[in-house]
């Protein structure tokens, strides 16, 4: 709850609407990092790299006294991605998951060529659908819902539990079936460990159940089983929290000398030392792994991109399907086109 209300909701609401649009550069950058931590935890394939690229650019500009740093600092709002995002959404709406890269590119050309909607995006006037009375009603309805919901959360404190040895609901069914087979079965964590070391069929699965923390949790108020990525960062780290105990010294926490942070780890004031050491490790590892994976991806994609660039230069969209069979022919064609283009510069 603390993670949701003090971390996720404010970050996602403020990053663009407040920080970006108010040109609060430092706060914006801090929030970019914060949002990266969500993407890391949620295991998002691209967003767990994208903010790191932006931050890497900033550090580079900073280290090299690059003038671009001041440009972006002083004119943050000019770097508006609205057109990109808007076009991206429209391309997505017009293509399916399985569309090939070439077809997506073609579709984008079509969208941009016949484009009355794009131009009219801002010019459209729509009547606002709510009046003051409706808004007041909705405000009260929402407040009532939240009050009742928070009350449930309060009453269910401590009732949400991890479901051990359960990776997904489907896997869980299988595991449950397997579990029923042997007569001796225990839900206790330590004895499960012992059983798995002795009896599980493969070494790998024994290792997994030993090392990995639970991946599924039963949330009491929602009455749902959720993947750990929906929970605060602490659950994803090597050291999941211990309720009401200090995550540093292991002694009980009390209201006057300790605090539970947005990651859900709790520390005595004296034990905290200005950072959560487990989450810091988790983020450091996340940066390292994603930067490496991104670099690998760039290296792998480099040749492919160059080839696509060439194809784009020498073929119209309609002709893109035709294959140029011989490299010599390809090179000649490019050369003549290049010569024509250079000649055309005079007539621009
Ligand atoms: Zn402590
Ligand atoms: Zn933490």
UniProtKB/TrEMBL annotation:
Residues 174-211 are annotated as: Disordered. Keywords: Coiled coil. Residues 191-201 have a biased composition (Basic residues). Residues 307-341 form a coiled coil. It comes from the Eukaryota. This is Uncharacterized protein.
């Amino acid at each position: 709850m603390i993670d949701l209300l003090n971390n996720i909701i404010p970050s996602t609401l403020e990053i663009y609407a407040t920080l970006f649009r108010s040109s609060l550069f430092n706060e914006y950058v801090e929030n970019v990092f914060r949002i990266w931590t969500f993407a890391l935890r949620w295991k998002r394939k691209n967003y767990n790299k994208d903010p790191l690229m932006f931050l890497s650019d900033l550090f580079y500009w900073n280290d090299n006294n690059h003038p671009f740093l001041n440009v972006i600092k002083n004119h943050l709002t000019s770097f508006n991605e609205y057109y990109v995002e808007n076009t991206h959404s429209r391309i997505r709406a017009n293509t399916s998951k399985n569309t090939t890269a070439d077809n997506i590119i073609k579709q984008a050309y079509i969208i941009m060529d016949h484009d009355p909607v794009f131009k009219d995006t801002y010019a459209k006037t729509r009547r606002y659908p709510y009046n003051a009375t409706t808004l007041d009603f909705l405000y009260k309805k929402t407040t009532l819902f939240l009050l009742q919901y928070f009350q449930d959360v309060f009453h269910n404190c401590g009732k949400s539990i991890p479901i051990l040895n359960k990776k997904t609901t489907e896997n869980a069914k299988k595991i449950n079936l397997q579990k029923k087979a042997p007569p001796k079965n225990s839900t206790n964590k330590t004895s499960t460990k012992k059983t798995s070391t002795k009896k599980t069929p493969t070494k790998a699965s024994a290792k997994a159940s030993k090392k990995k923390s639970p991946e599924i949790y039963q949330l009491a108020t929602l009455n749902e089983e959720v993947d750990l990525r929906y929970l605060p960062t602490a659950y994803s780290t090597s050291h999941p929290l211990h309720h009401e105990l200090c995550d540093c010294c292991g002694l009980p926490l009390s209201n006057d000398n300790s605090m539970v942070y947005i990651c859900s780890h709790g520390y005595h004031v004296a034990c905290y030392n200005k950072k959560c050491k487990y989450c810091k490790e988790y983020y450091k590892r996340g940066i390292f792994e994603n930067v490496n994976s991104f670099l690998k991806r760039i290296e792998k994609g480099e040749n492919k991109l160059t080839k696509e660039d060439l194809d784009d230069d020498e073929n119209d969209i309609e002709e893109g399907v035709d294959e140029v069979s011989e490299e010599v022919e390809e090179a000649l064609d490019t050369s003549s086109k290049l010569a024509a283009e250079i000649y055309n510069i005079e007539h621009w």
